[in-house]
Structures are given as structure tokens and as C-alpha cells.
Amino acid sequence: MIYLYERGVLMNFLIDLCSDKEGLGQVVTLLKNVVTLIQWGIPLVLIVFGLLDLGKAVMAGKEDEMKKAQQTLIKRFMYAVAAFLIVALVTFAMGLVGSTEWTNCWKGTGSANINTVE
């Protein structure tokens, strides 16, 4: 019983910190922004670089270079999909494993109504 009470107090404390714009809420907002940048930025950069390599190979006109650039583009595309899905899967898994307090904190940060996190 004492453990559950202490856990409830700890969770309420964490929720208060999460809803505080100067406490944990800022850290979670920064982390959420970094994760979003990784989720969208890395795949975009990988695909752009793959297309640039393919464009250079086409401009050179050599069949071997074009074939090699195609294979590189396909690999980079697969890495881009993997980078995007890994972030999505980890976020999904944390939503399943984590408590509702963590989920509410993660979803509530960075929004205009941060004080309504429960």
C-alpha cells in the first residue's frame, strides 16, 4: 500500500513538472522536437543525397555508374523508411508500455493548452 501511495505522489509530481512550462515540460518539448527532426530530417536527407548521386551518374552517361547509383538510391530509400519507422515504433511501444501519465505528458507538451495535461 505504501509503495502505491508513494508511486501516486511521484506520478502527480511528474505531471506537475510536465505541465510546468519551466520544468520537465521544456525538456520533453525539446526532446519531442529533436525526435520529430530525426524522424523527418534523416529520411529526407538520405533520399535527396541518393537522387543527387543518381543525377550525377545519369549526367555522366556511364551504364555502370547508373546501375551503382540506382542500387545506392534503393539502399538509402530503405534506410530512410527504417529511420522513419523506428521512431514511430519506439513512440508506439512507449505508449503501450508507459503509463498514461507519460503519454499525456508527451502528447501535451508543445501545445497551446499545456496546463490541461492530466
Structure commentary:
- By secondary structure, the chain is mostly helical.
- The chain has a domain at 27-106.
- The protein has 4 helices and no strands.
- The protein has helices at 2-19, 24-60, 63-97, 100-108.
- Helix 1 (2-19) packs across helix 2 (24-60) and helix 1 (2-19) packs parallel to helix 4.
- The longest helix is centred in the middle third of the chain and has 37 residues, at 24-60.
- The chain is elongated.
- The chain starts with a helix and ends in a 10-residue tail after the last helix.
Q: Any low-confidence stretches, pLDDT <50, length ≥5?
A: 1-11, 112-118
C-alpha termini separation: 23 Å
Structural class: mainly alpha
Helix content: over 70%
The number of helical elements comes to: 4
How would you spell out the order of helices and strands?
HHHH
Characterize the main sheet.
none
Overall number of strands: 0
Indicate the mean pLDDT: 77
Instruction: Please indicate the percent range of residues in DSSP E strands (runs of 2 or more).
Output: under 5%
Radius of gyration: 22 Å
From the spread of the alpha carbons, the general shape counts as elongated
